[in-house]
Amino acid sequence: MQKNENSLMKIGDIVNRFNISHKSLHYWENAGILNPIRGENDYRYYDDENLGKIKKIVALRKLSLPIPVIHEILNSQTPNEASAILQTYGSETGKDRTKQAAASIVMGKLINMLNENKSIENICDYLENVPENENEVLKEAMRIITVEPVKEIELSELLENDSFDYFDLVLEEVANS
After folding, report:
1. Contact call for residues 36 and 50 (beta carbons, < 8 A)
2. Is 110 inside any structural domain?
3. pLDDT at site 131
4. pTM above 0.85?
5. Among 15, 52, 78, 144, which is disulfide-ready with 102 (CB 3.0 to 4.6 Å)?
């Protein structure tokens, strides 16, 4: 080990200081963001550089930024580059939020129809042919959620992608919940 062990923090100290899990630290290390120093006992030790990264990761995770985006931000060379990364991610999530809000409006209508004892067939017909006399907010919500075709992604397709580690993703989500 290159540095004095007394100037380094152990994983348990990091977990307590930042209120995060061991699994999160391991995930961030596997993602290439952290590079802890390994002691002769193979324990992980964190220096000031890693502490700074952990502090930034924790702050950015509070904004619900995914680890790949955080990795890009931490690797950015200038504030403008980091800003561009955030703007791109923000516009993508803005589209998602808009679509989720639209879906919520449509689901409210469908719930009302079910409460009026309409059948699933009636609801499917309604979704395919929204009446012209329907309110504009609902028509706009329907337009938003029907713009993109429905796509299903097989879990096996995701697992075949070397850059996607589903198990680590699940562990991270559990650790952060």
Report:
1. yes
2. yes
3. 83
4. no
5. 144
